Amino acid sequence: MVLVVAYMRSGSSLVGDILQQHQSSFYVFEPLRAATDLVSNNQSLTFYNNSVRRYTSSEEIVHLHADLLYNWFTCNFTNLDLGSLTSDYLRFYSSSTLPYYNCLQWHGRDVNSVKYCLGYLQSYCAHRELRTIKTIRLNLETVDLLLGRLPRLRVIHLIRDPRAIIHSRVRVKLLTWGNIRQEATELCAKISTDILLSIKLKHQHPERFNLLLYEHLAERPEVIADRIYTFAGLNMTAYVMRYVQYLTRYGRRLECFWCTQRGNSNRTAKLWRVYTPYSHIRTIDAVCGMVYHVVGYQPITDEKAQLRNLSNPLRKIVDFTVGSF
After folding, report:
1. What is the C-alpha separation between 234 and 227, in angstroms, rounded?
2. pLDDT, tens digit, for every residue of 48-102?
3. Residues 272/163, Cβ–Cβ less than 8 Å
4. Across all residues in the chain, what is the average pLDDT?
5. Any idea what DSSP says for residue 47?
6. Distance between the two ends of the chain, CA-based, in angstroms?
7. What span, in angstroms and rounded, lies between the C-alpha atoms of 7 and 142?
8. Residue 123, C-beta contacts closer than 8 angstroms, at least 6 positions apart
9. How far is Cα 263 from Cα 261, in angstroms, rounded to an integer?
């Protein structure tokens, strides 16, 4: 079992896609989306067994997420809420959940259709060697609970340079440069909080929890992919390695903001340094200093020598990243 915990536009879809290429993989893309949206809008969740519950406190939401992920990992789909079982996200980026989603589309998306189609999920999940979930909607407190409940679980905490994340979010029109200070403040506050728990979990579970910097994957995709498979207890195959090379080196870069095919992943990962105005970089740097200090990202004080000089990695080795992928 592998859980990829990340942030929106941090490269998590690529990591999940690499893992789902394993020949015996059950992969779920963003299974917390539906429940999180309902809870955020102060709506109740209706479960498969017809029970209804409202979640209001942050502690309740942490435990809700832990329960939902536990049930996805253990193939206990009848313990899930109907929003999760009918989410449109079940059709995205996963060959494991697509047949079930197509069944729902054909028969309808009510509870009777869910009961009729659930066999597709059961058959895919129950007989797979690897079960992988990737999510951007998670507090690391939930991960702490899951590591206790699932002894075979491995967790990858994916972090990317906040400046690259913000640039990517602007590029896909999730925000505008006009509100980047607030966006950067919220993003780096979230990462900072997660870092504190990440340090604790890495210390408590050194064989089961590890950090991945997206920049490492983009720069050395074959090496890092192999390390990810080793961490998951899997053997890298020639097919998966060719797929990684296709996604990150030899394939044509798609003009698709949500696709995992990168062309040259190293060059693509540095586009923010080419196109982001220096004034916006300084705005982000002003509120993300704690993240930079702990993770090793460098604030930019010279546009030409640092920002536009792509041979400058803008990172240094720090204690937090020692032993990471």
Report:
1. 10
2. 999 999 999 999 999 999 999 999 999 999 999 999 999 999 998 899 999 999 9
3. yes
4. 94
5. B
6. 18
7. 15
8. none
9. 6
User: pTM higher than 0.85, yes or no?
Assistant: yes
Which residues, including other chains, have CB under 8 Å from residue 90's CB and lie 6 or more apart?
A: 29, 97, 98, 100, 101, 104
Tens-digit pLDDT profile for residues 149-192: 999 999 999 999 999 999 999 999 999 999 999 999 999 999 99
CA distances from 68 to 35, 44, 75 (A): 9, 15, 10
Q: Print burial letters for 283-316: b (CB count within 10 Å at least 16), e (below 16).
A: bbbebbeebbebbbbebbeeeeebbeeeeeebbe
| Among 27, 189, 208, 5, residue whose Cα is nearest residue 100 | 27
Helix ranges restricted to H, the chain: 12-20, 33-40, 58-73, 82-85, 98-107, 111-126, 140-149, 162-171, 180-204, 214-219, 221-231, 238-245, 265-269, 271-275, 278-287, 289-295
